[in-house]
Design brief:
With about 120 residues, the protein is mostly beta strands. The protein contains no helices and eleven strands.
Length: about 120
């Protein structure tokens, strides 16, 4: 019932920055807890960061803590991921995900709606 579309991916050099966006439609955005996940070639999908529907609580994987920031603008039905100090190991397809819940979720299995993904490639 909710549709998610990611954008903002691309090719950047190590140490650079990138901002991803995810626009939601179909149901009120404020109903959903949201998350960013990524999948590198040959690896399983892993959590990057998640955020509660009000934006009051966030969770980050240890690998991105201090470098990435997840945020949302409910008035714009948009989820963001600001990525700074990018490393080659950040390369992968980045997905946004949604779940109707007031509780902070931290794993892919907690989410039931997914976008199509956007490619992020970090060169060394």
């Amino acid at each position: 019932q909710v549709q998610l579309v990611e954008s903002g991916g691309g090719l950047v050099q190590a140490g650079g920055s990138l901002r991803l966006s995810c626009i939601a439609s179909g149901r009120p955005f404020s109903w959903y807890g949201m998350g960013w996940f990524r999948q590198a070639p040959g690896k399983e999908r892993e959590v990057v960061g998640t955020i509660t529907r009000s934006g009051g609580s966030t969770y980050y994987a240890d690998s991105v803590k201090g470098r990435f920031t997840i945020s949302r603008d409910n008035a714009k039905n948009t989820l963001y991921l600001q990525m700074n100090s990018l490393k080659p190991e950040d390369t992968g397809v980045y997905y946004c995900a949604a779940r109707v819940t007031p509780v902070l979720k931290t794993t892919a299995s907690d989410f039931d709606s997914w976008g199509q993904g956007t490619q992020v490639t970090v060169s060394s």
